[in-house]
Task: structure prediction
Amino acid sequence: MERVSRFIGTGEVKSMTKSPYNSQLMHFARKLRKDSTLSENILWHCIKNRQINNIKFRRQYSVLSYILDFYAPELRLAIEIDGSSHDDKKYEYDRKREIDIEKIGIKILRFTEYEVKTRTTDVLETIYQKTLVSTSPQPANAV
Result:
């Protein structure tokens, strides 16, 4: 199994297998699950219980020093919903966060709250298509 490094909130680096889950953020993630936005609830209702391509998604999953809205560990795929709290002031933070997460091999799909609320079918189709690509067998000579 592939080994990855993760950052603990203090900056300490630990090596682990599987997922770079950060248990130190567990209580905060639990609070976020309780206080989910309407868009998060809409999307969660559609992707929970392996409803998309039999893929298990987790909600408010902590990775490194961040919490992802949704995460599929077997695909290393994150889904983020950007809402009113994701304005221009947070662009630099969000970009650094995205770079950090992608460095450890997690792909990120981003949708706006508006897209989830008004074009749910399109959002679900995009997620479905991404799961097909992620689960497709790779050619032997793929890098």
Summary: Confidence is low (pLDDT under 50) at residues 1-17.
